[in-house]
Amino acid sequence: MQNKRGISQAFSNVPEGIALRPATVFDVFDISRVLIRSITQLCVADHNNDPDHLEQWTANKDPATIRGWFKPGSQIWLAEREGRVAAVGGLFETGKITLLYVDPDHVGSGVGAALLNRLERQLTACGCTEVHLDGTKTAREFYLRHGWKATGQCSDRQDLSCFAMRKSLHPQG
After folding, report:
1. Least CB-packed of 28, 44, 72, 97 within 10 Å?
2. What is the CATH number of the domain that holds 36?
3. Is residue 122 in a domain?
4. How far are the Cα atoms of 16, 29, 43, 84, 108 from residue 105, in angstroms, in the given order?
């Protein structure tokens, strides 16, 4: 490799054709699109096509609200595939993954796994040794396959489809 970016990508387990990058405020429309499409089309086991539940879940996924998510101590990352935003992930630098959604057109392409790995590496770089998230029924098996452990239902949400999960970021030796 001839540059730092190429070297880091060579060791990042990112499948061919997928690019990972930090999001900017100029990405809020693409972020909104991915979040809403993923929730409405992929998370049916969680919302059961209940219009009230869908409205509540997607209410804060509009571009104006997303613009406010860009603040110190949090990061939003994108996975792009074929020149389009294919997945969105977010984290708090204190050790929590706040979101990870894949556009329905890109499920099974590796963008979710690549983005999860990137978020975990970012948290390691922030000094975190353990990471937490609140996952859905839809995403539960995905996280379990990637080394996460279920720790019970989410305490701050009384939603039966919300699962608290954690993962150690200590290197396997």
Report:
1. 72
2. 3.40.630.30
3. yes
4. 17, 17, 14, 10, 9
Which band of pLDDT confidence, cut at 50, 70 and 90, is reported for residue 163? confident
Distance CA 49, CA 35 (A): 16
What number of H helices and E strands is found in the chain? 7, 7
* pTM score: 0.86
Average pLDDT over residues 32-46: 94
C-alpha angle with apex 28: 27 to 34, nearest 5 degrees? 90
Query: From CA 93, how far away is CA 104, in angstroms rounded?
Result: 28
* pLDDT digit string, tens, across residues 40-57: 999 998 888 999 989 999
DSSP structure class, residue 145: H
Contact indicator for 23, 1 with CB cutoff of 8 Å: no
Structural domain containing residue 74: 4-128
**Does residue 152 fall inside a structural domain?**
no
- Can you tell me whether residue 154 is helix, strand or coil? coil
Q: What are the beta bridge partners of residue 92?
A: 74, 96
Tokens describing residue 4: 């730092």
Distances from the Cα of 140 to the Cαs of 58, 95, 115, in angstroms?
A: 20, 19, 16
**Count of the separate structural domains present in the chain:** 1
Domain membership flag for residue 158: no
Say if 170 falls within a structural domain: no
